[in-house]
Amino acid sequence: MTTTLWHERAAAQQIDGRAFIGGQRVWAKSEQRFDNLSPIDGRNLGAVARCDGADVDAAVAAARAAFDDGRWAGKSPAQRKRVLIKFADLVQQHGAELALLETLDMGKPIKYSQSVDVGATANTLRWYGEAIDKIYDEIAPTAANSLALITREPVGVVAAIVPWNYPMIMAAWKIAPALAAGNSVVLKPSEKSPLTALRLADIALEAGIPPGVFNVLPGFGHEAGAALALHMDVDCIGFTGSTRTGKQILQMAGQSNLKRAWTELGGKSANIVCADCPDLDAAVASAIGAIYFNQGESCNAPSRLFVEESIKERFLEKALAMMPDFQPGDPLDEATVMGAIVDATQLKTVMGYIEAGKNDGAKLLSGGRQARGESGGFYVEPTLFDQVDSSMTIAREEIFGPVLSVLSFTDVREAVRQANATPYGLQAAVWTSDISKAIQTARALRAGTVHVNQYDGDDITVPFGGYKQSGNGRDKSLHAFDKYTELKTTWIQIG
Predict the structure, then answer these.
(1) 299 catalytic, yes or no?
(2) What contacts 24+ positions apart, CB below 8 Å, involve 205-208?
């Protein structure tokens, strides 16, 4: 589709900002609304319901009623499977509309909204639908005079709170396994990117998910989000977002009904490139592509790049040659590979970190400025710092923007020590031709995923999550069912 046509469709796009509760679109009970501003050009996309505790009560009550009467939980796994596969098919059928909403809402290039976000969302729904009727329960090896059954049951009402950087994908990672297992769900998208979550609710109803089983509440974290975390009738909460907010949610879960709380939080991932790297060009392309993808707004972005001293000069020369390819452009142009920062607040945060890097003595090699100011949107040049040390703010704190910090090393063991010297532990990578070094380094890195000689490898079949303050629990793979099910033992005495 041409850029002109995308802009025409954007201008004609009608936004429905009402919440989705019990199978119906409704405004917040308070009638409060907030403006949804596009980071592309600052335009107001429309009014969105500002849900609060009263709306949370209504959504949780609808979800509880749906769970208790068995309209979804009581269906066989094969029946739920058929509905989720239809849900996935409809997501793909509505792909252009969903991609446009995603790009308008959070500024990512339409190229990736179509090729990555829509496809991954549909694939997640389909995969968990396919999986649910292929998971078997267990019989324990007890004595002959007893029969012990170990079965999985849905936990009940699941609250899912998701971030703004991958709104559809993060929602799918939560709702797909939760729904497949038979739970009812209340989803709260970020107030910065509510549109695709609301549209997914319409599509879910069309696919055959019964009213009340899937509810969507737009609103602010301190209002709708906190009310969900504190609600006494929510059985489980899955959260992806900042470590600071994740800690608050864990506290609220404990203060209320001790609901299960699963968090996928921040990251400050380390990418270690050794002198015996098998393909320096591939390492450079991976490092640059991974940090600037999605405008650097990825929790697993490899924002700390450790390069062995003997190859650093060649590495940086190649990296700088790639920087023009990642200059921010019009997100509705399919040639654009880096779009807008999500809003003015995040733009200010990113620029503040860039200033901190310069003030701390890091050497700015490229970027560091705002871009496309005439558009009215929020754009930052891809930024590259050299001569960074681990004590600097830009090497310690999650920036969530297109800023790469380069550190050097002479001993890979020292690189590992510095890589682990962070409260985060989401992802990491090592590049080496030595298989022993690769395995030893991967074992030593304290991260939920360690890549070897690549960074962007990913599949729905592998778990995603972190160590330390990057959170607990895992999204994706069959392990996600552990979060949204209870294990029950039924002991039967025989004779």
Answers:
(1) yes
(2) 205/23, 206/90, 207/83, 207/84, 207/86, 207/87, 207/89, 207/90, 208/82, 208/83, 208/86, 208/87
pLDDT for residue 223 is more than 90: yes
Question: Is residue 495 domain-resident?
Answer: no
Catalytic, out of 236, 274, 277, 299: 299
Residues with Cβ < 8 Å from 425, sequence gap 6 or more? 267, 446, 447, 448, 466, 467, 468, 469, 470
Count CA within 13 A, CB hemisphere, residue 441. Answer: 28
Is 494 within a domain? Answer: no
CA angle 309, 315, 320 (to 5 degrees): 130
Cα separation, 185 vs 200, in Å, equals 13
CATH code where residue 152 lies: 3.40.605.10
Q: Are residues 300 and 260 in the same domain?
A: no
Nearest one of 192, 201, 133 to 172, comparing CA atoms = 201
Query: Tokens 């003997």 correspond to what residue?
Result: 310
- CA dist., res. 483 & res. 479, Å (int): 8
pLDDT band at 495 (very low <50, low <70, confident <90, very high): confident
What is the domain extent for residue 283? 270-466
Q: How confident is the model at residue 456 (pLDDT cuts 50, 70, 90)?
A: confident
Task: Tell me what pLDDT residue 1 has.
Answer: 86
Identify the active-site residue in 264, 308, 381, 398: 264
Total domains in the chain come to 2
R_g over Cα of the chain: 23
Residue 235 has pLDDT above 90, yes or no: yes
250, 307: one domain: no
Active site residue 277: no
Q: What is the mean pLDDT of residues 248-270?
A: 98
Q: What mean pLDDT is reported for the chain?
A: 97
pLDDT band of 473, cuts 50, 70, 90: confident
Domain identity same for 94 and 119: yes
Cα separation, 246 vs 131, in Å, equals 29
- Neighbouring C-alpha atoms within 13 Å toward the C-beta of 140: 15
